[in-house]
What we know:
Number of helices: 4
Largest sheet: 11 strands, mixed
Strand content: 25-35%
Number of domains: 2
Structural class: alpha/beta
CATH architecture of the largest domain: 3 Solenoid
Shape: elongated
Distance between the termini: 49 Å
Mean pLDDT: 94
Strand order of the largest sheet: 2-5-8-11-14-17-20-23-26-28-29
Low-confidence stretches: 269-274
Number of strands: 29
Helix content: 10-25%
Amino acid sequence: MAFLKGVVSVAKIHSTAIVDAKAKIAENVEIGPFCMVGAKVRIGEGTKLLKYCNVEGHTEIGENNTLYPFVSLGTMPQDFAYEEYVSYLKIGDGNIFKEGFTANPGTGEHAETVIGNNCLFMANSHVGHNCKVGNNIILANCSALSGYTEVGDFTIISGLVGTHQFIRIGKHVMISGGSVFSMDIPPYAIAEGRNGAIKTANIIGLKRKGFSKEAIKAIRAMYKIFFKSGLNVSNALARIENELEMIPEVKEFVDFVKSSKRGVLHGRSVNRRS
């Protein structure tokens, strides 16, 4: 990626925009009216700041992203523990950030907040400090990820959802609107409520993403064992490992549950942490 230093003719920068001469702006970047770009910012090729955007701090934005009005990136984390660290906000390629989206850098020396590729962040959503957000994520209107939240690829988080710090959300998860969680949500789940429950496996979503019939059958069986058998977590995992072929989808689920520190959200049945 070829970065150019300062305000240069190959980048289209509106006369009312304020871009620090030390900022590194790639070719074909568009910076619209009344945008502000700080000295330590790097912006990749084809990225567009439409108008009234603010980008500061050690913020790196990849290629072909679009920032709608009133997006704010890289300001100080909303964390009383933050000091004048050198910390980062790193954003991949092909993302869309709608009006009023905010994201902060990490808390801690050289800490990072990371956003992947091809995500859609709807109006007034937020990614907090030290979050790790994967690829092809949808974060709907007014939803917020608290600090250190991790979100797996192809997850859809509906509007007005909140997360507790340090929780993990697996891949291909669907979260219902208005939900709030302080426990981990395993891969392939549909989850809802205020620490409510895993409703079922996200079968429709998996079919749309081209999962094989064999994989979907295994996920159905795995979910039945883990969430509906009445077994505690350790016994349910043991039964899954004994009875099901450890295809990648099953292994991903098992590894996720085993590595959980906050505990995995339970199902509508009797399962709880063990």
